[in-house]
Every structure is written in structure tokens, then in C-alpha cells.
Amino acid sequence: MKRLLSAITMAATMLFVAPLAQATIITYYADLSGLNESPSNASPGTGSATVIYDDALHTMQVKATFSGLIGNTTAAHIHCCTLAPMTGTVGVATPTPTFPGFSLGVTSGTYDTTFDMTLASSYNASFVTASGGTAAGAEAALFAGMSAGKAYFNIHTTFVPSGEIRGFLAAQAVPEPGSLALIGLGLAGLAFRRRKKA
Question: In this entry, which stretches build a coiled coil (predicted)?
């Protein structure tokens, strides 16, 4: 009876956790500098940007830190999709004139906002038009571009209106929570089984 109850409990837990494993969560990262701009500039400013995309929830969390800028911030957004990976310039893919809530008129700061990628307002209207006219098309194009190294995070300032610091986003290898949960369940099951044999 105990074995049957244990098997049912484990099966129910796996059925509950299995849908979580279906989500793909990808983390993209970029180091921001004036040398990464096109053309490069002599800004001493530095920063980093992290973009976390969840394809099941259709969300994009954007986190950035920056400091040491010469000019005051005028805008920040993600540009996509360049012709060749890690080089060139291209139009803005995310909201214009800037990310909602991004601090303007400063030389340092932080940013952390999550976007609903099913909404057209999460994109530049011209990017939506160029991506088939739908938010779904824009989402697919943006994340294909990011995965291919053809998207960059750019901070524009009064010192360099076209962008004082930027960095191309690159995918980071991070295990997704669903996979970690399944691994944990498997290890717990093995430990339980081993304990019963002892």
C-alpha cells in the first residue's frame, strides 16, 4: 500500500512539474561600452544589460546598469536585426522613444522592467510592421535576431545622440527551472528508493 501511495504521489508531482519543463527561458547578456558603438567613441561609460525571455509566458525582463557616461541619457532600447552578427547598426525593435520608466537626464543608473511580448506596445511600431504586422511576428523576429547575435542594447545620450554605449546581446547557458525541478525529483526518488532497500 505504501509503495502504491508513493508511486501515485511521485506521478502526480511529475505531472504537475512537467508543464514547467516545456518553457524555454533564455538569458541574453551584453557588456556596454563606447568601443562597442558603430562608430566607436571615447566614452568612459560602462554598463551591462541582461534580457531574460520566457517563451511560455511570452515575457521579456530587461535589466541594465550603467555609469560614467559623459552625456545625460536621452533614450535606451534594443535595436534589431543587423545584417551580420555582432556588427553594424539597425533600427529600434523595442518601444520608442525609450524603454518605459528608463531614467533620462542622468549619467548612471539601473533599470529593471518586464514586458508582455504579446502586446504591440512592447515594440517599435515600425518593427511590428516589418515583422508581418503582428506582435507574434515581432516577438519571433526579435528573439531570432537576439539568438543570432544581431540585436544590441543601446543607451543614447546628449554626448552621442546615436548611442554612447552599447553591446550585442548573446545567449547565456542557464538551466531552466523546470529541468532543475525534474532533476531534483529524480534524485529524491533515487534517495527514497535507496533508503527503502537499506
Answer: none
